[in-house]
Amino acid sequence: MERKIVEGVVRNKEKSKEKFLNAVGKILRTKGFSALKVNDIAAVAGLDKKLIYNYFGGTDQLIDEYIKSQDFWSNVKNEPDLDINDGGQGLSKAMLLWQFDYVFKNKELQKIILWGLLENRSSLKKLADDREESGDALFKNISDPHFGEHSWRYRAIMALLISGIYYLDIYASTNDNTFCGLNVKTEEGRKEIEEALSFMIDKVYESK
To answer: CATH homologous superfamily for 2-63?
Structure first.
């Protein structure tokens, strides 16, 4: 009997934590990061704000946990493995296309990216550091050995492509205008960008 009671308490706690995390996402998506106040989060979650302190330690810790859950690299482990015997050519294309799709669909992550440009928050810095660490591991173990003395050129190209992906996705979500004549909101426009990304990676590997 005691075991069932404990299991019920644990389940309720996890459900409540999920409600708080979902509330953070909803507020971030609809009102922006400046609206992430403890009373508003509790109201959207429909729970007592004291539980935020009980379950997370405070509002900042709750927000930090939410930020971590939304990052691309925290979710990429769910994607299938790829052959890396080509020096990372296929992996490079796959990672760019996954990010292009993931950031576009995740409005909350878009807000987090913008937030990171505007505020020096420890959890946002850690997110950027973790992202760099994950990317650096791929560079050092896969692309650097392939490109040798030209490895930094490849890294620079990837920096341009990834930052371009972030900008285009956020631009498409906040503007009705085209970009270089492309409507990045439409399937046709996005396909053109995807094909361009693949084309550029192919050219980078051909020019090694």
So the answer is: Homeodomain-like (1.10.10.60)
